[in-house]
Every structure is written in C-alpha cells, then in structure tokens.
Amino acid sequence: MTALRGLQNRDDVVWIASAMTEEDRVAAADPPPGVRLVVHDPRAYDLFYNTIANPFLWFLLHSLWDRAVAPELDDAFHAAWHDGYEEVNRGFAEAVVAELDNRPDAVVWFHDYHLFLAPRLVRDARPDATLGHFVHTPWPTDWSALPESLRREVHEGLLANDVVGFHTERWAASFRRSCADVTGGCAARVVHHPISIDPAEFERLASSEEVRMVERELDHERPEKLVVRVDRADPSKNIVRGFHAFGLFLDEHPEWRGRVRLLARLDPSRERIAEYAAYRQAIDDAVAALAERHPGSVQVELADDFVRSLAAYRQYDVLFVNPVFDGLNLVAKEGPLLNARAGVLVLSENAGAHEELAPWVVTINPNDVEGQARALHEALTMDEAERRRRAHALADHVRTHDVARWLEAELADLEAARA
Asked: In percent, how much of the chain has pLDDT > 70?
C-alpha cells in the first residue's frame, strides 16, 4: 500500500502479508528481512476473498445491495465464512502472535475489511499487546444483513483493538453507533484521519515526458470542454448513473452538444466475481446508449494505465466523482493537485473526501441523476475567477494535508495507546 511507504525507512517494521504467488509461497520459508508471508490454503483464500471479502463485506460496507433480492446467505455462504474468512484471519493472527513472541513491545497495525476478526484472536492470545486497525472503507450503521452472531464477531474483532481509525468523523460516528447496537458499547479509542497522497511524487510523475506526450495527444483531440472521471469499474463508483447524468445534461442543454466530451478512464476490477461482471455489462450498455443518443460525446478507456490517468487529470475542465459511497476517494485529491485548467471538482456527498473538500466543490447526491446533470452544467459554466479560486484552494489543501501528515497522526495514536 503506497500510503505506508513512509514506514519503509524504519528498521523496526515487519510487514505481514499473504503469499499470493508460487514464488511468494517458496519465499515464505525464508523471507527477506522485515517481511513475514502467510501461506493460506488456496481453497480457503478463494472463499475468503471471492465470497466474503469481495463481494459480501464490500457490498455491505458500501450499501450496494437491493435488499429485496440480496444478499441470500445460504449454506455455501456460511461455509465460506467459517472455512474461508475465519480461516484466513486465523492464519494472520497466528503470524502476528509469532512476531509478538519475538518482539512483545511491538505495535500491531491491521488494515481494512479483510482482517476484521484477527485482532480478537491476537488479543485472546496476547492480552497486553498494543493493537490498532485502520478501516479504509465507509462504515454503515445498519449491519442487519449479517446474522447476529456474525455481526457481533465483526464488531468484537475490531473492538479488540486499542485504536480503530477511519477517514472521516462520519464513518467513526457510524462505527460507534453500530457498536452500541451490536455489542452495547465501544471500548476502543475511535479516531479519524483522512488519508492523502504524496504531492511531490505525483507532481514528479505528472511532469515526465511519458505523461506529457499523452497530455499533448489529449489536448490535440479534445473538444472545447472535457469532463473526466477516473475509477475502478466497481459498482460503488456509480459509473452507470454518471453516464445517465451526462446524457441527461446533453438532452437538456443542446447548446453543449459537440462542445463537450466525457472521458472515462476505468480500470477493470474483480471481474471473476459475478456482481462485478454484471456491472461491467451495465457500463457497456450505458455507454452504447449514450453514444447512440449523442454521437461523439463519450470516450471510454478500459485499462489499468496510470500514465493516461495522470494526463487526464492535467486536462480536465470538470472532474466527475460521484461514488455511491467511498471511504475517502483519492481521485478527488489527485486530480485537483495536477490539473492545469482550473478544473472544477463535482463530488458526491457520500465520498469521504467530501468532509474535507466541501467548501471548494460542486456537491452532488449520488442517486440524483437530475441533480448530477445540473451540477455538470454549473461546473461547465462557472465563472473563470471562481473556478480558479476553488482550484487553487483544493491544490493547496492537498499539498498541506499530505500522506505523511496522515501517517504521522496514525502512528501518534498508536504510540499513545502503547504508552
């Protein structure tokens, strides 16, 4: 995880990670210094990742289900929970305990929804350990989709930590409420620090000749105005409604037809999972309908191509970020840092980054397609002086509130817990 690069220079850090490849599994017997690789049973890991972590927990955390039809927790789900999610969490917990045997004063820092159960297992084995957990997703207050015994297992797993961190006060408050509902209270210290990026690294990458070459290509091909979105092809990113909103904007404002194009840079995501494959098809259908109704209005690049994303950041007049829910959304920080056209950020109120960036964005509701169409029009017609004011404020905020500041705040919380 790039946000944790600041720990690489410390010689007292041990990274505990899954052995993902055959080379990893061989290396697990004799790993390099500072690394411990956990070898999982392949079937258990498949159940852990492709049945429970993604899509079940991801969909629950991002409030993505149509509850009239999903989820349906059959015997296969319960088997996957016990034989996959619990099993992989147990493997991580055993690796942590083994490291604590070597260094009992070490601080343990878990990350994200994959390891909700591991902290309780470590706490039971080493009651005096200092444990922290950062959750990078939203946190919903409604956990009723998960049976009572399993939602208690999740909450008690996290509450075994001394410190539980989130990106925003909103998610932290939701966690406190759901803990009160599920377990009767919240004993852990709950904090919130929004993650960010390394501005110097992004600006260095964006100034490379490779990026500038793509940027010149985009500049040569662009219409008068360019709306850009950069996302994984994930249901939480709300891509289909975004295409619908752009089409509605062109329906209602014919004066913009031929003058503006939507460039969507989409990275393929988790396509082995049925829900993601179905959403990919929905994206394709929405693009085809938009292109038929408004020829030349949309350009989709479906590839993991960081260089082209950086070039698109430089060129946008409007950056369209409309997730259903997001723990933070780093696109909302990366784009404004690099943009060279005083571009306007249109941002979902359910993106965690909105809590920081609201004064300088055009706020949208992710379900309101009509509202998103109005927001696109507002952004495209905004006065130049106001565009520049907002763009400068966003870039200054990202430079000041960088990833090093996030890491420092998180480590300070963990050290305070140990003290």
From this structure: 98
Around Cβ 241, how many Cβ atoms within 10 Å?
Answer: 17
Stretch (H or E) spanning 95: helix 86-102
- For residue 121 the two structure tokens come to 């297992």
CA nearest neighbour of 136 among 157, 119, 162, 115 = 115
Mean pLDDT confidence for 347-374? 98
Structure confidence at residue 7 as a pLDDT band (50, 70, 90): confident
Alpha carbon distance 62, 282 (integer Å): 19
Q: Please give the full DSSP string across 109-175, using - where no structure is assigned.
A: EEESGGGSSHHHHHHHH-TT-EEEEE--S---S--TTS-HHHHHHHHHHHHTSSEEEESSHHHHHHH
The candidate with the shortest Cα–Cα distance to 329, out of 229, 185, 226, is 229
Q: Which domain holds residue 14?
A: 2-196+404-418
The CATH number of the domain holding residue 301 is 3.40.50.2000
Residues 82 and 131 in one domain: yes
Domains: count for the chain: 2
With a CB cutoff of 8 Å and minimum separation 6, the contacts of 270 are: 54, 55, 234, 276
**226 and 364 part of one domain:** yes
Does pTM surpass 0.90?
Answer: yes
Give yes or no for residue 187 having a pLDDT over 80: yes
User: What's the pLDDT score for residue 285?
Assistant: 98
Q: What confidence tier does 12 reach under pLDDT thresholds 50, 70, 90?
A: confident
CA 113 distance to own-chain centroid: 11
